[in-house]
Known about the structure:
Elements: E1 2-7, H1 15-31, E2 36-38, H2 56-70, E3 77-85, E4 91-99, E5 102-108, E6 132-135, E7 138-144, H3 153-160, E8 165-170, H4 178-193, E9 196-201, E10 203-206, E11 209-212, E12 216-218, E13 224-227, E14 234-239, E15 255-256, H5 278-296, E16 302-305, H6 310-323, E17 328-332, H7 340-353, E18 356-359, H8 363-377, H9 384-405, E19 408-411, H10 415-420, E20 433-434, H11 441-455, H12 462-466, H13 486-498, H14 503-506, H15 513-525, H16 527-530
Parallel strand pairs: 1-2, 2-3, 6-15, 7-8, 8-9, 16-17, 16-19, 17-18, 19-20
Antiparallel strand pairs: 1-14, 3-4, 4-5, 6-7, 9-12, 10-11, 12-13
Helix pairs in contact: 1-2, 5-6, 6-11, 8-9, 13-15
Amino acid sequence: MRIALAQINTVVGDFKGNSSKIDWFIKQAQKLKADIVTFPELAICGYPPEDLLLKKHFVEDNLKALNSLVKKISSIVVIVGFVDRDKSGHLYNAAAIISKGKIKGICHKSRLPNYGVFDEKRYFKTGKKSPLFVMNQIVFGVNICEDIWEPGGVAGLQADKGAQLIINISASPYYAGKESLRKKILIKQAKETRTYLCYNNLVGGQDELVFDGDSVIFDFTGKEIIRGKQFEEDLIVADLPVKKTAKKNKGKNCIKISVPEKSKKPVLQQRKVKKSKEINKIYSALILGTHDYIRKNGFQKVVVGLSGGIDSALTAVIAGDAIGKENVVGISMPSRYSSAETQKDARILAKNTGIRLITISIEKIFKVYLGALQKEFSGLKNDVTEENLQARIRANILMAFSNKFNWLVLTTGNKSETSVGYCTLYGDMAGGFAVIKDVPKIMVYRLAEFVNEKENEILIPESIIVREPSAELRENQKDRDSLPPYAILDEIIKGYVEEDKSSQKITTNKISIGTVRKIIRMIDKNEYKRRQSSPGIKITSKAFGKDRRFPITNKYREY
């Protein structure tokens, strides 16, 4: 059996565009004489559609798009994800198995994830439909995403009923380290079910999520036959030496699909996907997520506030790689506290990366603000109020350029800062998309070094990487004035936010209980800020926002 896995990048709600892409990939699979071509979970409507599923007309348009596609299919079997609806109006996350202009069968997802970024029980009913199919005496089963993660589960039942081949269509979002977990589960399922296992994953950015593709086929011993590319569309085609055993009882209760065996199939080219280091994958995820958010939302250019610091430097470089340096504008907005070194580094970065740089001093505007507030603030010491005025002036300037030229503002805050509220609401937090929102500070440094290694030249000046971080909102300000070293801070954040550990469990010989509890208080206290922040790309196991839902009004303390 020759099978093709179409790893495509869909857009939620773009029925016309998604259908056109599906049709194009079907034609490519047909040229290669594939017997079956598969598409990812909910490929017709895009994933995740979220509360669009509550609109009846959205579901109807999804069904119309499917039926229109069905009529075009003749000489190949197509398996595609869509939203199914029963007579009672219940919705199902479904896969249609299509042959000769007809839907031969429908499979419903039975294991609905309802954790992290997933809310499937909010929309879908638990599926009971999981028929087997027989084609040219080969029995195969189809299941959807989470169905394959359950030991035994749907895959086990399908194998017990005679399936020799199991096809899983998926929309599994990326985070650092997930690939190895996914691979381990798929290999275990292939071995336990003694089947050929075809895993077809979605690719592309959708709001905070990035889907990495990485579709793969394993044989019944768990040996990898072929793997798709990561973070880009791909058509993965393989010949599977599945024995024709659908005789007697096997295949008896299966849905029969009669498709003539294709003779003289073209020889498939040998392919091998290079393995990448984790840092490369993280960077690729950031590029794909940034590109798709910008382009899918209709923006052509972006604007970034360039401070001469490492966060804004990395954000600008990622943006340039995502949509082209000619579409990125940096704005340097020095104040009385901006050092000559950071201003120089902003200029060098712009020159190295080829992005346009605009310089607008905020000093005069800052003086006007201070003058307007002088009477009411008379006799009071300067504090965070005056510091934040500068950040908010800069936000106003960035938003002015955004309004005037329709440029999307990219914010530059990282996960470490936003965790503890070391950022200014309506200041540096203001913008349309937060590229490194889920990137811890230590990872920011690693990515900056990776960028220079990857390009084999210095894009991000070494002075930016080695300089002690500072917000430069007051004289001689340093991040360490308010925060512990970032290596320690990131470890506490990972333990508390991503792993839900107690303060006692996070405490080590290097990290005191007092420091841990101070940071936990800061994280909890600043939930109100994060709730008002821009969406950003998820690259850790638990990101703020959809992934971690914490009450703003909250008096609970575990100590």
